[in-house]
Specification:
With about 290 residues, the chain is α+β, with helices and mostly antiparallel strands. Helices cover about 20% and strands about 35% of the residues. The chain has 2 domains: about 5-120, Beta Barrel (Elongation Factor Tu (Ef-tu), domain 3); about 125-290, Threonyl-tRNA Synthetase, Chain A, domain 2, CATH 3.30.980.
């Protein structure tokens, strides 16, 4: 049996397609189904910031709810499918292919290899996540810009797409996208202070920084710029990049495997709230009105 990497279409706003099943793994709890193509975005096993898409898988007259959508890897020698945290290797490892795994309830012989199945994504839910993810990118770029104006005493080696010290990259602990929202947690630790961040000043002026971020976001939204996702190929593990021209001298280009909206015009308003959790941790809550 020959297995191929899953080709994904979620960057092209394709919400429905028909594809052949190339692998089925049966467990007591679920059926894990791998197709040659899919419109579903899976949750990453490495950086699970963007939830799995919702939707259905149809075989003949039987419609099944896709309960989860995960990243999988097939060992081409042992014909074994590993899912999520079971995956022991990095992408492009010889002898393996990375695939999208659709999880449905375990039903004996419900789906078998070679079946043609119809895959339909809940487009309204995906669009909510897409807005949340794009807003998260915009919010962190605005945060970086505000902090670059007076909260660093050293020039950092790591820069963001606009050339500002990349606070987001240095300090981000977690990021979680939900419907029309994004939550980022940052750690203002000793290492970051050594790199030159005036974290005490930052915490003292958190309300002012929040206000400046929101002013910047309001200004960017008036541009109505397009948001584009470029990709180096159609396979799940091919690199993808979020791009948007915010008139900051350089177009913002960010490596990202998530789904995104196609324009700043999809937002009526993006509002950020900064919350201090303790002496070393803050949260950035990004909320969207559309």
């Amino acid at each position: 049996m020959t297995y191929t990497p899953t080709q994904v279409t979620f960057t092209q706003s394709i919400f429905h397609l028909t594809s052949d099943v190339q692998f089925v793994r049966v467990s007591e709890e679920a059926l894990y189904i791998v197709t040659s193509q899919t419109p579903f975005h899976p949750v990453s096993h490495i950086w699970p910031d963007h939830p799995a898409d919702r939707g259905t898988l149809t075989v003949g007259e039987h419609i099944y709810t896709v309960e989860n959508c995960l990243v999988g890897a097939i060992n081409l020698v042992e014909h074994q499918l590993l899912v999520g945290k079971e995956i022991p290797i990095k992408r492009d490892e010889p002898g393996w292919v990375f695939v999208v795994v659709h999880q449905i309830r375990a039903e004996e012989k419900a789906v078998k290899v070679g079946d043609a199945v119809s895959l339909t994504v809940d487009d309204a839910y995906q669009k909510q996540l897409s807005r949340g993810h794009s807003a998260g990118h915009l919010a962190y770029l605005a945060l970086n810009k505000v902090l670059a104006a007076g909260y660093w005493r050293k020039d950092a080696d790591r820069k963001d797409p606009h050339g500002h010290n990349d606070f987001n990259s240095y300090a981000q602990v977690t990021s979680f996208v939900t419907e029309d929202r994004c939550l980022d947690t940052y750690r203002l630790g000793k290492t970051l202070r050594k790199r030159g961040l005036n974290s005490a000043d930052m915490l003292e002026n958190l309300t002012k920084i929040e206000e400046q971020i929101n002013v910047q976001l309001e200004s960017w939204l008036t541009l109505g710029s397009k948001i584009e996702i470029t990709r180096q190929g159609d396979n799940l593990t091919d690199s993808r990049y979020w791009q948007c021209d915010l008139q900051e001298g350089k177009k913002a280009i960010i490596p990202c495997g998530g789904t995104h909206c196609d324009s700043l015009e999809r937002f009526k308003e993006i509002q950020v709230k900064l919350v201090q959790r303790d002496n070393e941790h803050i949260e950035m809550h990004t909320h969207i009105t559309h």
